[in-house]
Specification:
about 180 residues; alpha+beta; seven-stranded mixed sheet; about 40% helix; about 20% strand
Length: about 180
């Protein structure tokens, strides 16, 4: 478990360092068997330590001090045994893109295959409704933008998730600036 905690700590620093979220927003988890290690509620991702990573049982309804998004993480993990990592950020350009009613066509970009299909869903942070909406699309994509909220990405490793979220944010930034220039 210590090595998994180190992995979460490493990626907490990376997502903040790369501007994919501010220190105080977002969460990260890794599944191992019937347990999930997840960042604690209210933690700063670039200041994580072992005490700020909570171990929860996937079969239990509650887990004290876990991120308020635990319900979303548990729903994603329940969809496929190969989903073992989740990163949730509040990536500025991706969230902005979700409010612009733009066509999310990745075919014209070389990294489209890395990201895969992007879905936009709705739901309040940490709500059952958000968990259900993401759960409905979890098997047809690895990444969603929650309109006016943030990005959830899941996969087999945190590295995989980080690459996809980084590529999505790059795509969203390009799309935003392209729209400004072409006006």
């Amino acid at each position: 478990m210590e090595s998994l905690k180190k992995e979460i700590i490493k990626f907490g620093k990376k997502v903040v360092e790369k501007g994919l979220c501010t220190s105080f927003f977002g969460n990260i988890s890794i599944r191992t068997g019937d347990k999930v290690l997840i960042t604690a509620t209210g933690t700063m991702l670039d200041e994580l330590d072992n005490n700020k990573i909570i171990v929860c049982n996937l079969k239990e309804d509650k887990c004290e001090k876990a991120s308020s998004e635990l319900i979303v993480h548990k729903t994603i993990y329940s969809k496929n045994i190969n989903f073992n990592a989740i990163i949730h950020t509040h990536s500025f350009y991706s969230v902005l893109l979700s409010s612009l009613d733009e066509d999310l066509n990745l075919d014209e970009y070389e990294f489209g295959d890395i990201i895969g299909e992007i879905k936009i869903v709705e739901g309040k942070s940490g709500s059952l409704k958000l968990a259900e909406n993401i759960g409905r699309v979890a098997l047809s994509t690895y990444i969603v933008i929650v309109r006016n909220h943030g990005v959830f990405c899941w996969g087999s490793t945190l590295t995989e998730c980080f690459i996809r979220i980084s590529a999505l944010e790059f795509y969203a930034k390009m799309k935003f600036y392209k729209k400004l220039v072409i006006r």
